[in-house]
Amino acid sequence: MLVPLITAIVYLEKIQNIISYLIPMAGLIITGYFLGYFKKAKDTRMGAREGFVIVSISWVLMSLFGCLPFLISGYVKDFFTAFFEISSGFTTTGASALTSEELEIMLNEGAHSLLMWRSFSHWIGGMGILVFILAIIFESNDGSALHILKAESPGPQVGKIVSKMKLSSRILYLIYIGMTVLQIIALLICHIFDKNMTIFDIFIMTFGTAGTGGFATTSASCALYAPCSQYVIAIFMLLFGINFSVYYWLLIRNFKDIIKNEELRLYLIMVIAAVAIITIQVVNRYASIEEAFRHSLFTVASLVSTTGYATTDYWSGAQGSWPVLSLCILLFLMLCGACAGSTAGGMKQSRVLIITKYSKSKIKSMISPRRVEVIRLDGKPLDKKVVDSTVSFFVLYIIVIIASTLLISIWNPAMSAEDATPLTMITASLSCISNIGPGLGAVGPAGGFSNFSWFSKLVLTIVMIAGRLELYPILILFSRNTYKKST
Questions:
Q1: What is the average pLDDT score of the chain?
Q2: At 20, is the pLDDT very low, low, confident or very high (cuts 50, 70, 90)?
Q3: Same domain (yes/no): 20, 164
């Protein structure tokens, strides 16, 4: 919280805003101090179960402490709205439960620190808080820290890119910081031509892009920025959706593994095809081909990377709703997401590949029962455990979307009948579990989550955290077997 605290001091904000960070900071220090005196277990080795529980509890507590500045400052009156907002930040969802009026009040009253806290939480949560801790703390000899990395990092296959876990975490964060700095520099150059983007906006938009989050300073998102700024943000959204191991291979000139990477190829093909089809479909809705292409590229980049920024309202804008095929493509991109090992959400392209290959192998096995099918990814055979966990993840993913949709449909008194539609509820659940932000219907790019009831916000908050942690850590947290002594 030092970053928003410094922001509050720099902008000479009222004392209540400064206190709103000092109180939770003091609470965290005191809590950590007393926890240090708890009796330690005789066996301090960390297994997969401990890794999952540590990660899931840490993320819940982090969100509980993280929402306090909104409440103490007085800008958010409702706990569930504040909890939803900061959870949306840490999980890089970017779905906002604040109204456009509340955002305007923050801006008009100079509450820059709260806007910074919302967006900086994207940057913190993008690579993973505990991954950052692993980069700076002492690494145990038994390699138990890998269980934390696996529980917090997105994707079906998580491992070390070099021999030491601590060094792997440092390399990932250095790449992350380097790319963040590059985007800031690129936007500073665009600032010469884009007077609508302030220096403050540059940092806000960069943190949101790097973490593939989506919080902006206004409800207009990126619509007011100049084309050069929109292109820079779109390109970096796509870049942050690529597995960070690819950038490490690039640095060590390991071009062979980059070329062989099937997930990267699928990701790029999917983006190119989606942009081409949507541009052709919406070209008559905009003043020029360039404008149609720019909005198509930006929207595809935003949704496939699960960032959630917008330059145009594809659902209910002045040009009308985009064609059905274009909207279906956007829904498909929301579901798939970007690459494993990136800061993006969604199912991940590698899982799409594995499930597709698994289905293909089953069809072949039905035709030729004696045939032995080996599922390969990047030319290497996949372990059966990886394939099984990928299939079970997909099933759980769909089950959570269905359960969440039903639960949030129960009670929303502030929502009109026109807004409370099945499309709104389904895409709200999909956007939260995939950590996207916008959906369709009332939660489209020009909408939001402010009219949902406290119960629906709580359900969607849990779904956001579960989606960011790839479901299993949160589900394991609610399992009775987790707390039984191992035999």
A1: 87
A2: very high
A3: yes
Do 387 and 241 have their domain in common? Answer: no
Q: Per the domain annotation, does 334 fall within a domain?
A: no
Q: Are residues 95 and 230 in the same domain?
A: yes
Domain boundary among 228, 255, 282: 255
Are 338 and 264 in contact by the 8 Å Cβ rule? The answer is: no
Domain ranges, residue 105: 2-35+44-255
Listed residues 209, 224, 255: the one ending a domain: 255
Token output for 98: 């604040």
| Position 225 in a domain | yes
- Is residue 113 domain-resident? yes
Q: Does residue 358 lie in a domain region?
A: no
Domain harbouring 419, CATH code: 1.10.287
Are 246 and 264 contacting, i.e. CB atoms less than 8 angstroms apart?
Answer: yes
Q: What is the DSSP string of 407-440?
A: HHTS--TTS-TTTS-HHHHHHHHHHHHTT----S
Domain count across the chain = 2
Q: Which residue is it, tokens 């909005």?
A: 295
How far is the C-alpha of 37 from the C-alpha of 178, rounded, in Å? 38
Check: CB of residue 166 under 8 Å from CB of residue 146: no
Q: Which two tokens stand for residue 10?
A: 């720099």
Residue 308 CB burial class (10 angstroms; 0-12, 13-18, ≥19): buried
Q: Tens digit of pLDDT for each residue in 33-78?
A: 888 777 666 666 677 777 788 888 888 999 999 999 999 999 998 9
